[in-house]
Amino acid sequence: MLEPIVKKILSTRVYDVAIESPLDEAPNLSARLGNRVLLKREDLQPVFSYKLRGSYNKIVQLPEAQRARGVVAASAGNHAQGVALAARRLGIRAHIVMGRNTPDIKIRAVRQLGARVVLHGDAYDEASAHARELADREGYEFVHPFDDIDVIAGQGTVGMEIINQHGGQLHAVVVPVGGGGLIAGIGAYVKYLKPDIRVIGVEAEGSACLAAAMAAGRRVRLPAKTLDLFADGASVAQVGKEPFRIARRCVDEVITVSTDELCGAIKDIFDDTRSIAEPAGALGVAGAKKYVDASGISGQELVAVVSGANVNFDRLRHISERAELGEKREAIMAVTIPERPGSFRKFCRVIGKRSITEFNYRYSDPRRANVYVGVQIGAGDSRQQLAAALETAGYDFTDMTDNEVAKLHVRHMVGGRTADAGPELLYRFEFPERPGALLKFLLGLGSRWNITLFHYRNHGAAWGRVLAGFHAGPGDRQDLNRFLDKIGYRYVEETDNPAYEMFLR
């Protein structure tokens, strides 16, 4: 069954447009996992994704009469750019149907490659249906992103390159899965030549259509309204018919990963390559990490396919914020401490040498204070050890690390107005950002002045920034300023700031 597909892979002409992407070792990731991890760098393709391989192999085989009529595809991402580039290289008219809500950057990218963009509908299914209508009405060839044997063969050249480039004893190839075209092509080639190599698929938890199909023994359609769109390049409701036919014979297992695990994998790729993968492009690395953790293997060699780097810039803030959680290097705790001078300092002593990544507090009760705190977990440390330290110190606390509401919303909303804090002066501080800097700052404040508001978040900048309120009135200002001068950090009084007046006072 696999031989015909392998023959198609061997006869492709993808290198008219694609490069043989490098197989690069990830030294930092390898050291952490205790296994040699190699990255198949499809993010380095001319359109920053493997998709042009399948698109070109499909289009280059079209007869002249069909080439004259043109091609059409439905995509808002990597497939669109692959089709557009292939068509331009072959001198064929290309029409790309995208949803009306597609970001301008993607529309511009496709137009720059010479394709005509047609905006239709609000979702992929609507765009795909319209593309098929255009194919039927105008005679265009519909280029499917994954459910086509020629597309699968083109994408299968990734597997051919892995085998040729590695040449040694390989334990597993870990492959991102959306519609299944890539893993079908890679799996067919790898299993035909070296059946002992494990082929592992990786899907986002909210769009695991191949995992569902493998469990059911048939293709399953996931509800479109529940699909997780974070890994949008692999967010597919149903695995393709042809990919599933092949995959069920050559895929050993399918792993699912969370958004936080994807963000952690993006950071891992960046740390080793200085390149930023898109969420779908990082599926392979996230899956490799999870596989090593679950299987307990060591001293083995694994290839993780980095399938693309077409990430939206506005996602980077979310990715960086969630990466530490995905790596289990940050814990989020809600802690109740006594409402009295010196409580912050005592609490920070319990935290010890762990770096505080976030600290949010607003006075609300004369007896108790609820603090939202992020703590960096280093090597040899854990959330459990942090929890034990808090428990030993007698604090009431709740672990919020896995609480989506806390991570997505509450961390940005802690605060509000208070009528009970009494007279209050507000200051903004800056201090050099380094491990232990926040603790040093709090120790410098001492216990003379009761803190009524506190906000800090480590943004990775050179300077740490704190907003703090003190129980003090206008008559205390001179005395408080002298005290702050002695601490030695830059500060600006913000008591008259309109944002403070409107939302916090």
Structural features, described:
This protein is of the alpha/beta class and about 500 residues long. It folds into three domains: about 1-50 and about 150-320, Rossmann fold (3-Layer(aba) Sandwich), CATH 3.40.50.1100; about 50-140, Rossmann fold (3-Layer(aba) Sandwich), CATH 3.40.50; about 330-505, Biosynthetic Threonine Deaminase, domain 3 (3-Layer(aba) Sandwich), CATH 3.40.1020. The protein has helices at about 1-10, 25-35, 50-60, 65-70, 80-90, 105-110, 125-140, 150-165, 180-195, 210-215, 240-250, 260-275, 285-295, 315-325, 345-350, 385-390, 405-410, 435-445, 475-485, 500-505, and strands at about 25, 35-40, 70-75, 95-100, 115-120, 140, 170-175, 200-205, 255, 300-305, 330-340, 355-360, 370-375, 395-400, 425-430, 450-455, 465-470, 490-495. Strands 14-11-13-12-16-17-15-18 form an eight-stranded antiparallel β-sheet. The protein has a six-stranded mixed β-sheet with strand order 1-2-10-7-8-9, with helices on both faces. It has a four-stranded parallel β-sheet with strand order 5-4-3-6, with helices on both faces. The longest helix has 18 residues, at about 150-165.
